[in-house]
From TrEMBL:
Pfam families: 2-Hacid_dh, 2-Hacid_dh_C, ACT_AHAS_ss, HAD. Residues 559-628 form the ACT domain. Its EC number is 1.1.1.399, 1.1.1.95. Keywords: Hydrolase, NAD, Oxidoreductase. GO terms for molecular function: (S)-2-hydroxyglutarate dehydrogenase activity; hydrolase activity; NAD binding; phosphoglycerate dehydrogenase activity. It comes from the Bacteria. SUPFAM superfamilies: ACT-like, Formate/glycerate dehydrogenase catalytic domain-like, HAD-like, NAD(P)-binding Rossmann-fold domains. This is D-3-phosphoglycerate dehydrogenase. One of its GO terms (biological process) is L-serine biosynthetic process. InterPro entries: ACT-like_dom_sf, ACT_dom, AHAS_small-like_ACT, D-iso_2-hydroxyacid_DH_PdxB, D-isomer_2_OHA_DH_cat_dom, D-isomer_DH_CS, D-isomer_DH_CS1, D-isomer_DH_NAD-bd. Pathway: Amino-acid biosynthesis; L-serine biosynthesis; L-serine from 3-phospho-D-glycerate: step 1/3. The keyword Ribosomal protein does not apply.
């Protein structure tokens, strides 16, 4: 049975209302133009909402118009630039289904036909009003006998067409819905790509964010591999709003929550999610991942990724990205500031002064200049701190388990013990891997100098808090700054409980080392871009758990992304499938680690569904995606 797709023109095929735009063009230089344009727009709006009769609205708008034939030419040029994006990208669909697509519009043929015919829609399939002109080309009215000039004109027109088969109506207005209400259409799809009218969506069988969705649900050929609005993004822990805006601009559906979720909550929330964005507090455990059937990628909107079960993500073909640099400077600045505050005992003095106590004295107040700073972990933050501290006159010592190049005059220590014995200040900047649990405990504090200043802005579990408290109480440690804790409150409402509370010359901060406007904004831009690149191109460049592949742009090709267990012969099997279907490989990229492999193959456009099925069936396939 034949199916017909009836598409509205104004605010559906194009993003704008044709008659309103014609008024804007025709009236732009007339003295009362502004008021008349506003009046026309108001009447259009009320008509679309079903608040005034269509025939009255049309009569009134054309009366206010004062347009000329030349204005229509100008309007056509403008409308060509305003075709709805999803219509534009699916041009090929209209060409292929020219016999099935009809335009039924209350607009005017004079501007509709030139626009839609460029998409292969036949002029005889366009049903719309037509203007009447005088001999000078002025619009003096319209053909009032046209069915579409009547109230419920679309209903009358569709009835007159007497179509046999399935009829689907796509439109943004109430008059489009009326065809369904009259029993002339099987389904009404409220098209919301340009405008969402509650009175219309409430009546719809289906709300259509764009044409891709219609093509997707009807399994019709489309120009994207998957409608983007079907991609759900869940952002937790109050990540910067820029991230939400970037994902929304890409067309994804985004939910942004202020707090972290616990395991049970996340197990529930993650079911339909394709992209998860978190910070340091959300644990992405194996159990959470069991419930994450649709998850394609995780973005850590921070540096640390120890809160994510990276291995399980890898085994499930879920790529994880983080922001390895965006907040490093913020941490460095805080560490420098805290070293000065602690060595001058500023917080104690400030508190006393607030209480009215004037304690002017230099005892136990020192400069940082010339002192030895021991940096444990010489990565992105440790090495940056080294440069800034040296610029302030400190002598820098560092220790890293990996052989690192010393910056400036920094001195490399051969062991942690050597560093701890030497340093006046010890600052931790190691990553949060499990083996670093209690890296600093009673033994290590024992090795440190009397009166040392100690900083942990890395991860809470790295320090044995009991030992730290004991050494602060004995005075062995003269001051400490702690930003990260073995247990941190889930949100700002939960009380922070720690034995460190109330100790003198101890700066406690609520894990805000990277919490600056600048850092959060940078992260909010950086991470979404990595995730979007992965979704759109398959690029795993800078992923923390997947073999890294950076790819050239995909040109006139379909891209097959195949993640598999790293066993022998997978590439050969992929190529065998392609060869047996006479598919030409335009480019191929492979990267493996010990456990998984990632192959990206660009192929000619032509292929059958069997190819996809065969590729998915290759043994040890973890995940398979197609991009086009
Ligand atoms: N407080 C905050 O808000 C905040 C902000 C950003 C980063 N961080 C944390 O700061 C830490 C450092 O971040 P980064 O970006 O510099 O990480 P990084 O990965 O660039 O550097 C970590 C370095 O530590 C070294 N290392 C690991 N274990 C070690 C050990 N036992 N002994 C010596 N060296 C060891 C690594 O080889 C690496 O060079 C991380 O734990 C990160 O999560 C905290
Ligand atoms: O890993 C990080 O970057 C820091 O610990 C900051 O984490 P946050 O974004 O949760 O503050």
């Amino acid at each position: 049975m034949k199916s017909y797709i009836i598409i509205d023109f104004d605010s559906t095929f194009t993003q704008v209302e044709g008659l309103d735009e014609l008024a804007r063009i025709a009236l732009k230089n007339t003295p009362d133009g502004k008021e008349r344009i506003a009046q026309i727009q108001q009447i259009t709006h009320e008509g679309m909402e079903g608040k005034i009769s269509f025939a009255d609205a049309l009569r009134e708008r054309v009366r206010l118009l004062s347009a000329h034939q030349n204005h229509i030419s100008e309007l056509i040029d403008f409308l060509k630039t305003k075709v709805s994006p999803s219509i534009e990208r699916n041009k090929q669909f209209f060409k292929q289904f020219a016999d099935n697509v009809l335009i039924i519009s209350s607009g005017f043929r004079e501007f509709i036909v030139p626009i839609v015919s460029e998409y292969g829609i036949k002029p005889e399939n366009v049903f719309a009003n037509s203007f009447l002109f005088d001999e000078n080309g002025n619009i003096i009215g319209y053909d009032t006998s046209n069915l579409l000039a009547q109230n419920e004109g679309k209903v009358l027109q569709l009835k007159a067409l007497n179509l046999e088969g399935e009829v689907y109506v796509i439109g943004d207005g109430y008059t489009d819905y009326q065809m369904r209400e009259a029993g002339l259409a099987n389904r009404f799809y409220a098209f919301t790509e340009n405008i969402k009218r509650e009175s219309v969506t409430a009546k719809a069988d289906y709300v259509l964010p764009n044409l891709d969705e219609f093509l997707f649900i009807h399994k019709l050929p489309m120009q994207v591999s998957y409608p983007k609005h079907r991609i759900k993004v869940l952002l937790l822990e109050n990540v910067h709003p820029k991230a939400k805006a970037i994902f929304e601009k890409e067309g994804y559906q985004v939910e942004l929550l202020k707090t972290a979720l616990n395991e049970a909550e996340l197990c529930e929330a993650i079911r339909e999610v394709s992209i998860l964005g978190i910070r340091s507090k959300t644990n992405v455990t194996a159990k959470v991942l069991e419930n994450a059937e649709k998850l394609i990628a995780v973005g850590a909107f921070c540096i640390g990724t120890n809160q994510i079960d990276l291995k399980t993500c890898m085994h499930k073909g879920i790529a994880v990205f983080n922001a390895p640099y965006s907040n490093t400077r913020s941490v460095v600045e805080l560490a420098i500031g805290e070293m000065i505050m602690l060595t001058r005992r500023i917080f104690e003095k400030s508190n006393l002064t607030h209480k009215g106590i004037w304690d002017k004295s230099a005892t136990n107040s020192r400069e940082i200049r010339g002192k030895k700073l021991g940096i444990v972990g010489y990565g992105n933050i440790g090495s940056q701190l080294s440069v800034v501290a040296e610029a302030l006159g400190m002598q820098v010592y560092f220790y890293d388990i990996v052989d690192k190049l010393a910056l400036g005059n920094a001195r490399k220590c051969n062991s942690l013990d050597e560093l701890l014995r030497e340093a006046d200040f010890v600052s931790l900047h190691v990553d949060g891997r499990e083996e670093n649990t209690h890296l600093i405990g009673e033994r290590e504090f024992g090795l440190m100098k009397e009166g040392v200043i100690f900083l942990n802005l890395a991860r809470g579990h790295i320090v044995d808090i009991e030992a730290l408290v004991k050494n602060l109480k004995t005075g062995k440690i003269a001051g400490a700054a702690v930003d990260v804790f073995p247990y941190e409150p889930k949100n700002n409402e939960e009380e922070f409980i720690s034995e460190l509370r109330g100790l003198p010359n101890v700066i406690l901060t609520p894990h805000i080392g990277g919490s600056t406007e600048e850092a959060q904004e940078n992260i909010g831009e950086y991470v979404p871009q990595k995730l979007i690149d992965y979704i759109n191109t398959g690029s795993t460049y800078a992923s923390v758990n997947m073999p890294n592949l950076q790819l050239p742009a995909q040109k006139d090709a379909h891209r097959l992304l195949h993640i598999h267990k790293n066993t022998a012969g997978i590439l050969a099997q992929i190529n065998q499938v392609l060869a047996s279907h006479q598919i030409n490989i335009l480019g191929q990229y492979l990267k493996t680690n010990e456990e998984i492999g990632y192959v990206i193959t660009d192929i000619d456009k032509e292929y059958s569904k069997d190819v996809i099925t065969a590729l998915k069936r290759i043994e040890n396939t973890i995940k398979f995606r197609i991009l086009y």
